[in-house]
Each structure stands twice: as structure tokens, then as C-alpha cells.
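To: structure subgroup
Subject: Chain for Friday's discussion

All,

I'm putting the inputs and outputs inline so they're searchable in the archive.
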Amino acid sequence: MNTMDTTCVNAIRVLAADAIEKANSGHPGLPLGAAPIAYELWARHMKHNPKNAHWENRDRFILSGGHGSMLLYSLLHLYGYGLTLEDLQSFRQEGSVTPGHPEYGHTVGVEATTGPLGAGMAMAVGMAMAEAHLAAVFNTEDYPIVDHYTFVLGGDGCLMEGISSEAFSLAGTLGLGKLIVLYDSNHISIEGDTELAFTENVQQRLAAFGFQTLTVEDGNDLQAVGAAIETAKADLAHPSFITVKTEIGYGCPAKQGKAAAHGSPLGADNVLALKKNLSWPEPDKSFVVPSAVYEHYHTLGQQGEQKEAQWQTLFAAYSQAYPEKRQLWDRMHRPVAAETLWKDEEFWSYADKPQATRSLSGVMINRLKDRVPQLLGGSADLAPSNKTYMEGAGDFSARNYAGRNLHFGVRELAMGGIVNGLALHGGVRPYAGTFFVFSDYMKPMIRLAALMKLPTTYVLTHDSIGVGEDGPTHEPIEQLAMLRAMPNVCVFRPADATETAAAWYLAVTGTQTPMALVLTRQNVPQLQGSSKEAVKGAYILEEAANAQPEAVLIASGSEVAPAVEAKRLLAAKNIQVRVVSMPSMELFEQQDEAYREKVLPTHIRARIAVEAGSDFGWGKYVGLDGATVTISHFGASAPAETLFTKFGFTAEHIAATVQAVIQKNQ
């Protein structure tokens, strides 16, 4: 390591230590130990341009160990991505662009929101899949316009979490040769030495997954780190896993190699000792970086500018040589034309016969296949049940990266993370399917998608006790409430074909919100009054005679049809009710007060919600004077029709509940 390299590595360490000390909060251990890895990667092996953090053909870097965020912030500052010294001094403070864990969309140069350990590993797999797919679709022999790597850095915690094993198992199967994992191996976790709970041979595990495995014995040896990265880049048939042996808290005499370096500031005396140990100039001052260091990083950044300029020249020539491919490129990299899809009569058409909304969703997916060429997705080994397969679109595999049907295997948690990575990469519009009850497995990754404002789509079928004979392990009860409780997630439970089309219209045209499409296994009738107004979240499906209802029935999904039948039964008794279909509470809440009042007038206090799930969340619509026809216990194993009758989801029971509520309010 030459003198300038040493000083540049130490600049990362010192800035991280100073920022964490000023904030009196943070994780210095990873930045101090892994600084040489990051410096070598960014300086000599990673293609990136500080002047354009969104260059399409840049290499991606994900810090999976997001608690070590000051490593990334120091790099972004030194390279000139826009983070100022004042930003570093505001680390972890209110309103800063340097939050405790990196946040996508909040800080320029952050490729993914990380923090939940292992999540970055799965997102990196998704990014590598997106690169492979786009390369297969667009590259020609003379014009490799999609040609970049995905690098992810994480530690022992990331490798302990099950999501990384799920994701890496698939990555190995797919032969994602442009995925390179850098393992910061320091054998320390919060509770102490990893001998306490993590003694496996990680290299052998990754080799079994199909990775090329490499080891760097000394994490401070830049030449060895660089040689390993180049060896990894050369193997395009296998993803690569590089174990880099480091010492947590390197350079701090009192804490180097100890768990105490992980998650708390070093302390003023130890920061001073660190700087003196690293021979840092003016060790008694904070946030001091020699001008020569900034100049060196600026020079490195200019190399990235030149690489993008070369790519732009290549891309311009490609656009002239292959104008049709360029048109497809533009189409796949811009939002879906919402107005065009809204007016597309064929897209909204349907056969007037009972069908499961999962089947109707399958029809929509295949209609969207050609309308939305960036659509890419699949299921956790459930495509025949989820109806998520795009006919004639090919299977994405190590032999055919151009395929658009993804096979995630039985890996729901990793599937959620991978879909996030696909969306983050750009150029593709991903969806993922499983049984609704198994959204529990996906929940942490759906939460990250919501936090990052990613327009991912989840096809969640078998949505209720309608699962039937499979029994309570497979029958969702609380999952609707769970997803509805999550900020920035749109849960949409359609009642028929028109509402299912509305769900997919929203899914492919949205830009900042994950969509959860909650779909039936059993057939439902096509409702005469259903309309595109479903995109508003709730609408009047059937009005009472003379538009003067005594009560309002609110239902979603498969329960809308029995609610309509209950209205008929009540009308025969001269009781007039309005039926409101509410496929999405979230969308309804986004409407203006006048519309919400029109649909659910405040003066009508007799309100009854009908849904084959928990009553949690319905109180805001039915109030103290209303009631719910819901389910507050687990299901049972029996035919669906038997269970719907047993648990009260019949027109007769709904009508009786309406009568009881009206009587109570008189």
C-alpha cells in the first residue's frame, strides 16, 4: 500500500470515527475494519460516476451491513457525490441526509435502504438478475450496452440471517456471474466472538450454492483484495464470494478486534488514540482531511466520468444501429402510459362467468405481457396456483436470461428482497406471488419496499377461509390487517373481473407504492355494478331505492357478492341498504372529503362491514353504532362452502346483522 492509498483509506476511518463521536451514536467497527475493502473496490474495480449517480450502466454497490453507514457516507463525501462535510457532521441528526442506516431516495449514491441484516444480500441478487435480463434483451455482439457488476458488502450477521442463504442458493442456480459478495469476516458480533453461535464453514456453504469462493487473509492488503476482485470478475459462469479477513475497529488500540467496537462511539480519548495510531495530521481536531486526499479522490472520480462518456458514445452508436431496440429501451425505462391503459377496452374486457380473482389476475398478467414489456415476475414455486405465468415469455434461467418468468423456488423471504433489487435496478417492473398466508414470510421485505417507495407488486392468492380443505395453516385471518397497518402499502382485494383489472392498472402505473393484490381461490360472480371507480378504493356498487339507505353494507373481495344478495333479502322486507365495495382502504383514504362523504355519509350510522378476515381496522368505518361480519379465530379444514356457511358469511346472516344494527340505532 503506497502512502497516498494509506492516507485515503485512513480518511474513511477518521471521518467515520469523528461523525459517530459527534453524534454520540453509531457503529464504528465496520467502517474501521472494512475501509481498505471499500477503498480498493471503489478506486480500482468499480465503474461509477460521482457526477451522475443514476448512470444506467454503473456498477452497483450495496452496503448490506447498513449499520456501518459511515463507511458509505465517507466514500460519497470523498468522491464528491454531493455529501458535504457538514452533512457528515449531522450524522444521525434530524433532517440530515446521513441517517443512521442508508436510505434509498434520501441520499444520493445510496442504491438500497439497508439495515435489516441480510436484506442487502437478497437485493443484490435481484440487481444482478436485472442486469442479466437487460443484457440478454438488449446487447449485441458489437454493443454491450448493459455490462456492469453488482457488489455487496456484509458481515457475519448478514451471513447468519436465513435470507442470504435463500438468495444465494438461487443466485448459484442462476449462475449470476456478475454478482460479487464481499464478506467482511471479523468473527465479532454484538454479543462477542462468533464462536458463540456461528461456527460453520461459510466458504463451503457458498461453494455448495454454486459460488466461486476466494479468501483474502489480510483485509489491509489492497493488492490482495484487488486481485481477488479481478479473479471474481473474470468468472462469468458463477457468482463470487470473497472472504476478507479483517479486524473490527481496526486502528483503535483499546477496541480493535473487540465487540465493544461494534455499536457505540469509540469515546473522545479513543478517537484521539486512533488518529495518532494512524499517524493522522492534527489528531486533536475533528473532520480534518488533507487537501491532497480530496484531490486524489477527485482524480479517481474523473475516471468514472470518462467511463460514462465512453458508454454514452457507445450507446449513441447503438441507438443508430438498432433504432427498434432503442425504442424498446426507452419504453422499458419510463413509466407505463396510464392514460393509454385506462382507455384500452380490450384490457378491461371480461367473460361474464364466475371466476376466481386469482384466475382473472392471470388473464390480466398475460394481457399486460405485451403492453408492459418490462413486466417480469413469478412465484415461490406456486405459479400454477397463483396464475402468475406469462405464456410464451420464456423462463429466466442460467440458459435464458431473456426469459420473463422468474422461478424463485420455495423462498418467500428472499423473493421479497430480490424483487426489491429488481425494482431498484430499473428497466424492469417486477411482481412476486405466493399464498396470502405466507405474506408473513415476506413482510420484512415488503416493509423495505414501502420505505423505499418501490412500485413492486405482490400477487397474494388463496386469500381467506376459502382455501378450504388445506385448513387453518393455509387460511389467512390477520394478514389483511397486518399489511393494512404498514405505511405506504396499497392493499387491494378485488371482488370481480373489473376490480381485478383496476388492481393491475394501479399496480403497473403506480410509481411510489407497493401493491398487494389479495385474490380468491374460489370463483366469484361478475358484479353488474362494478366499475373502474374501484381505483378510488371504495365506491357505491348498488344504491338503495330512492337513494335513501337505512344502512350501508361495506364489503371487499368475495364477500361483496353475498352482501349484494343480502341487500335483495332486505329489500323484500322493505329495508333499503346501500352496498359499497371497498377493495382498498388506503386508496379510499386518499380521496377528498367530499367523495368519502358521498360514499359513506356521516349521518348513516348503521354500517356493517363484511370481510372474511379479522375485524381489526374496520372500526373506523363502522363506528360504535355499527357491526362487522368478520372472523376472529383461525379457520378449519373443510370445503370452502361449508366454512363460509359455518362462520356466517352468508346473505342470510349478513341481512340479519343489518336488521340488528338498524334496530339498535332506532
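Points worth raising on Friday:
The CA atoms of residues 481 and 508 lie 24 Å apart.
The chain has a mean pLDDT of 97.

D.
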